Please model this.
Amino acid sequence: MKKSPTLAEEMLRTILRAARKARAKVAIGGGLAVRAHGYRRETRDVDAFFHFADRQKVLRALRAVAGDYAVEELDPSHWIAVPPGAEPDERVDLLFATGDPEESAIELAVRKKCGSVLAPVFPVDILVACKFLAERDDAKDWLDIYALHRRGAYDIRDVVRRLRQMGLREDGERFVAFMASLEEMSRKKRERK
Model:
């Protein structure tokens, strides 16, 4: 029995059609990228990253392929597109990159399965760097970073190397300390059991 696509997969297909129509590069980040790299986390939104210079043609293309979506500007580099009848957290975040690491993620995107959809997603080292640099104090981000590492999706040294390539040497050092603290928290939790 074939599983029906989720709304997130349908929104992803729509955004990929818009990217093709606009002839714009896109990379999927956020929870869908985390899933594509091997940690099954449920997510109901799509984080689609484009180059800022492509903003107008992407928005035109999206309106052409998904005219029934409500499209709203949150700020010049962040728009949302909501399909009809969607719940509040079911939406596409259209993020128009103005620098690294997102610009690099778009250029270096890797093709991975997001559910039943093959899509360009953030390379895992850049995905982890973005989640770390966001400093949102969000347990989901921390769990994503830790779970991907525990599953062998990336090596800490690769993330540090990527941060250094972006001129963020101190952030690379902070990342090593951050990972050590996550490992220590996990060890203490295992000992309590």
